[in-house]
Design goal:
eight-stranded antiparallel sheet, about 25% strand, globular, binds 6-O-phosphono-alpha-D-glucopyranose
Length: about 600
């Protein structure tokens, strides 16, 4: 979603802003722009489309500026075009604002500003901010105070950066509900919505919290609340490296991240399995383990792919811990006044740790007294910081918009939690050791599946012109069917639906004909015979079938048109293996259609608006 980068220092800000914006491209955007101060004047340049277009425009101007802000916009109010792109500015073009989030009362603010003579030129909610700040500047307030006064009138969410020609020594940054960090350098400082934008320049960062603003000078910064109370902030050192967020020779981040899964899965388990005790050790849960084990109920709340991981988690937790477990879309959970008690543990799963609905759901759960446990990938993200206890997935940076390695790592963490609780309850040592052993074998089994890449690519070639797909699975593999369908939709724009295989008879079977491919996830587990019946039913209707099957299953070949044979593991861990061919299938179909897999249309990596 929208991205922010800002620079103040002695260097030319233009390449820094452009490279920062390029690093933010993965978040999803539709237009880009920058504003900068140079030679006592201010300038703004923006366009619809790619950052490279902006770069091209700027390359013709010989700019040398030490202060600027840049933005990638993901449209919420108003179509993606040059006018609606950020930065937005006041009438005399002295004040520039970039904004992530949504101003909910922008219509009311617009109406009162119109009465003061302000004319709006964009369709955006964001344009109200420079005008509102300007109205206070006109009353004689300095910039910082004017920003505070404006923010007091704003309802909604924001991560924003402001520069002003008449106070050219600072950037003002403020946060409420939309992530924002400061990057601290030597005689230079940065503002960004995401560390990847500034990682090339500094690893020292300050995380702003909701309700905080920063006045950033080139050699120091001051953080205060919107109410003007100064706050002392800690500087945190980022451990992520620049190499980790590069493509490493792969054509797309998505493929790189799929291929990284033997390592990312390994990293999620590293130091967390104790074979002798047949259990898991999760330092992040220390002090809360008894409360978790004694929970009367577990709720898992998340969005998108993380929600699918939650569904698998439900199967794991109920099977082994016998604690009733429910899974909720965070967006529904937060608005429907859920019944929550102090005996509930609520697990919030989020790769980015910034998804607006998940964050808000977590705050609501905390307010109601439940134990809020975060499972996040991005270290230092809002959910990671605000959850009461939590576990990092340690999958490494995930840049591809379609989530892959984060999903398998989320499943690992859910398996670890399950193991830990189950062993504290009534799982036997031997059973616990069995799970530990199977988990240890996963990286090699994933390696084995990844060797099928060319085979899967060849299958993708056959289906690149399909317009509809059905994905079916049972038990633990039902959520994988949903995830497989989601992957295909996200990057290939082919309509796909996931269903529990038995439900096929209640609707989707009507769609099946010789043009409709169905992917069956059919490893040899306790539901195998049932799913074979569903395959037969599909075959009888001339459906085209791709089967994800166990490596020793020769029987399935007579039923399916294409089979992808993978190693087996215990049922609870099977989704970590079955999802991988589906990720590859979606990837190759999209590439064969000539689509930009890393930046699918309309999607965002980090959904920071509701
Ligand atoms: C977006 C991303 C998905 C992701 C979902 C939840 O839609 O494109 O890949 O699964 O948000 O994100 P989170 O960061 O909370 O896991």
């Amino acid at each position: 979603m929208c991205g922010i980068v800002g620079y103040i220092g002695n260097k030319n800000c233009i390449p820094i802003l452009i490279n920062g914006l390029k690093r933010l491209e993965y978040r999803g955007y539709d237009s880009a722009g920058i504003a900068y101060l140079a030679d006592g004047s201010s300038f703004v340049i923006k366009n619809k489309g790619k950052v490279s277009l902006l770069e091209e425009k700027l390359s013709h101007l010989n700019i040398n500026s030490n202060l600027g802000i840049g933005h990638t916009r993901w449209a919420t109010h108003g179509i993606p075009n040059e006018i609606n792109a950020h930065p937005h500015f006041n009438e005399d073009k002295t004040l520039y604002v970039i904004h992530n989030g949504i101003i909910e009362n922008y219509q009311t603010i617009r109406a009162s500003l119109r009465k003061l003579g302000y004319n709006f030129i964009t369709e955006t909610d964001s344009e109200t901010i420079p005008y509102l700040i300007d109205s206070f500047l006109k009353k004689g307030f300095p910039l910082c105070k004017s920003v505070q006064l404006a923010l007091n009138e704003i309802e909604g969410t924001y991560g924003l950066a402001v520069i002003y020609l008449n106070e050219p020594d600072k950037i003002i940054a403020a946060r409420k509900g939309s992530p924002l960090i400061l990057g601290i350098g030597e005689n230079e400082n940065f503002v960004a919505s995401d560390v990847s934008a500034i990682l090339a320049h500094t690893k020292q960062v300050v995380y702003l919290e909701d309700g905080e603003m920063a006045v950033v000078y080139k050699d120091h910064f001051v953080v205060k609340t919107i109410e003007d109370v100064e706050i002392k902030k800690e500087i945190t050192e980022i451990t992520m490296s620049l190499e980790e967020i590069d493509k490493g020779g792969y054509p797309h981040f998505m493929l790189k991240e799929i291929m990284e899964q033997p390592d990312s899965v390994q990293n999620s388990m590293r130091g967390r399995l104790i074979y002798e005790e047949g259990t898991a050790k999760l330092g992040g849960l220390e002090g809360y383990i008894d409360r978790i084990v004694n929970s009367k109920r577990i709720i898992i709340s998340a969005c998108g792919t993380s929600w699918h991981a939650g569904l698998v988690g439900e199967y794991m937790l109920e099977q082994f811990t016998r604690i009733p477990t429910e899974v909720e879309y965070a967006s529904e959970f937060r608005y429907r006044n859920p019944i929550i008690s102090k005996d509930d543990t609520i697990i919030f799963i989020s790769q980015s740790g910034e998804t607006a609905d998940t964050l808000a759901a977590m705050r609501e759960a905390k307010r109601k007294g439940a134990l809020a446990l975060g499972i996040c990938n991005v270290v230092g993200s809002s959910i990671a910081r605000e959850s009461m206890t939590g576990i990092y997935t340690h999958a490494g940076p995930e840049i591809g918009v379609a989530s892959t390695k984060a999903f398998s790592s989320q499943l690992i963490v859910l398996a670890l939690i399950t193991l830990l609780i189950a062993r504290k309850k009534d799982m036997s040592l031997v059973d616990g050791q069995g799970i530990v052993e199977e988990m240890t074998k996963l990286p090699d089994k994933i390696r084995q599946i990844l060797k099928l890449n060319s085979e899967i690519e060849a299958i993708a070639e056959k289906f690149k012109s399909a317009t509809n797909f059905l994905y079916l699975g049972r038990g633990y593999n039902f959520p994988v069917a949903l995830e497989g369908a989601l992957k295909l939709k996200e990057i290939s724009y082919i309509h796909a639906e996931g269903y529990p295989a038995a439900e096929m008879k209640h609707g989707p079977i009507a769609l099946i004909d010789d043009n409709m491919p169905t992917v069956f996830i059919a490893p040899k587990d306790s539901t195998y015979d049932k799913i074979i019946s569903n395959i037969e039913e599909t075959k009888a209707r001339k459906g085209v079938i791709i089967g994800i099957a166990s490596e020793n299953d020769d029987n399935i070949d007579r039923l399916v048109d294409y089979s992808i044979k993978i190693p087996d593991t215990i049922r609870m861990l099977m989704p970590i293996l079955t999802v991988i061919p589906l990720q590859l299938l979606a990837y190759h179909i999209a590439v064969k259609k000539g689509l930009n897999v890393d930046q699918p249309r309309n999607l965002a990596k980090s959904v920071t608006v509701e």
